[in-house]
User: What shape does this take?
Amino acid sequence: MELEKGKISATHLIFSIGCFIQGSTLLSAFVISVTKQDTWFVVLTGFIISMGTIGIYIALAKMHPHKTIIQMFEAIFGTFIGKIFSILYIFYFLSLAGLNSRDVGNFVVGYIMPETPIIALLIMFVFICSWAVRSGIETMVSYSFLFVVISYIVIIFIFLLLIGEMNFNNFFPAFTLPAIKYVQGTHIVAAIPFSEIVVFLMIVPCLDNQKKVAESFLAGLLIGGITLLAVIIRDIATLGNMISFVTLPSYETVKLIDIAHIITRMEVLYAIELLVLQFFKVSILYYATVLGIAQVFNLRSYKPYILTVGIIIISLSIVVFDSPMENAFWGSTVAPVYSSIFQLLFPGVALITSLIRYIFKGIKVGQS
Amino acid sequence: MIFLLISVFIFVALYDIPDLIRKKYWRELVVFSILFLSIFGIVLLQFSGITIPSPIKGVQYILKDLLHLNYQIL
Amino acid sequence: MNRSFTIFLKLIAVFMIIICLTGCWNRRELDSLSVLVGIGIDKTDEPQKVNVTAQIAIPSKIKTSGNKDESSSSAYWNIQYKAENVFTALRESTFSASRKLYIGQNPIVLFGEDLARDGVQKHIDFFLRDHEARLNEYIVIAKGKAGAILNVKPELEKLPGLNIEKLIDLHYATSKVISARLMDFVSSLASGTTSPVAPMIQVDGASENQKLSMSGTAVFKNDKLTGELDMVQTRGYLWVVDKVKGGLINTKTPNGVICLEILHSKSKMTAKKKEDGSFVIKIAINADINAGNQEEAYNLLLPENISYVENQASDTIKSEIKASLNKAWELKADIFGFGEAIKRKDYKKWESIKDDWDNIFPEIETELEVAVKLRGTGEINKFVQPEPEKREKNNGA
Assistant: This one.
């Protein structure tokens, strides 16, 4: 693959995947508003279901080593249909990058600086992400380890400070909601934090040892999943009845820290965590978009498009929703279906077609 | 405001285009121009007040109102 | 693209970053903010309007100066404003206050008694939605007018709002008053059955030597004030919800009254189902006490005396709990969270009875189990008096 000459190691991939999933833990309001105090259970079932989708990705990566998902589609379906799928995927990655940047913007504008127009913030955020993308994939994944460590330290710190506030009676009554809510919750958790790893199918070709794809995906999923479970358990135990009323449960939880009136107002920890993790997430999605554009049109370099795609992401973030309420509605009802199309349907179809072609090639070879 | 916008776009063009011309990457230049000019147009429309329909809302319309494939919110 | 152009571009980038990252757009200089240390909300004669008293701290006057009585002016300023709701009042007070009000450091929200009778939720909603307000502010109900409470000059502190906050913080010393944070209050509002509670505060004394004193607990039905618990009933309530952290019990013995200090206490409240489907709430309390004051000689080294004192203490605790239960039944307000306990145990049953909770709550049976242990007698282990052998020797000689 001449477009991307960097090589990454398996450890980097593991921590990148972990960091990517951790970025979604701070915006867990989508799933908490659906399943309230049983969200921990839904996280576990979502984890198990997403093992299935990750299995599809691992199989695809093993069958087509050193190929990104866009090149895979062209190899499996031929040029014309492959390019249609690829353009749809570019649109998907672009929309994810826009939505995540919008989440950062919503948080800062809603909670910290209400009078700032969101575009000022988005310009600075996307500018930094574009700088990261310009440095190349090796630089980007090499600080994933640092981010994961920082994020774990912050989460454990907040957990310890909140032990006095936790009340494990808040987990009961358990399992009293109608069954469709659990299905919806599992779908949301499997689609939004966990299976967005489909974007890593654009990065896996850089892995120097292609045999380690399976372990890297699963280890990264485990790191991210543990964080998500810990954060959800902390939020449910601390907030209790209020969990379905607050817009950002993790933020309100951090706001409640009050040790002897001295250690208070630790919301800055949450803000730092959010900015750092979302920066990583948006950079990876940005990189996937730019690389995808270069690969679809068979170009020789992706670097000229970085700034332009950055401007597209900024304008998309502004246009995509008018207010956080629409974002919340989208997140709990339509987003799982939209994501599943790109995470389950298309890769599943690609895998089946790939298997069929493999079998046919085997039969043809056997016959001839 | 429009002046700031145009200067940003000129800056982006100045940054990327000379490199492409020097290396004689004509195909890349074509793709770049398509992307660049379309986003330039969209952003200009946004700044002069015309609301651009959001693609996500388009997806939401397709999935919710046409195909009814969404979950109900309580 | 020669090198100097690249350097020029990098300089422009750095310049832009420095300008943008200072956050000038939403700047709030410290001397353009007035830090609020207390908010009092009262009813006014005009309907639909509330009178908001905001206590602003004046930092320059808080510093302790050399001579104590040089500043007759106080370190705070109470500004009053009438408007439709708290948010409007705080904003419109900028007509008279030169600095925008900042509620990020506000420790208490004080409601006047007559306003509380009409319902507090429409005023609390602002504190929940605002991103600067903290969820661990204390809610206090004032007997009388909140503005009067905020005017009382405290002796030990410089700011009345902080004074009230510290008074509430000290509730663990006696466990006869409670502390209610905004978070606890709205959690009770969010559940269908629990009644919120909040401490009450009143002004004692004539107009020259006024001081504040906490007095009892206010009980709400939904968000309207319906009744009050006195000190003994408040302690009973705290025993049940496991919030007693200290306090004193005066128990009678054959030799005078012993003042016992509560060291720790733990209480568990569970709902048990009986055969006929109704519920029994089991309250189990474990308390550790210390002997603090003895009036006459009562030998606490003898095991039978120890168990006598422990039994007396546990009877006192039971009577306090019964007093609070009776008052809660009388007010038909579930302040203890029995409904939540039943909901945790059997959700379906709770769904069917929760609409009729006002009538079912007084009929709920309770089982009390109190275990008290005397853990120490302080630094002396006997009441100081001449030893018995010495007395016989004196008599004999």
Q: What stands out?
A: The two ends of chain A are 32 Å apart (CA to CA).
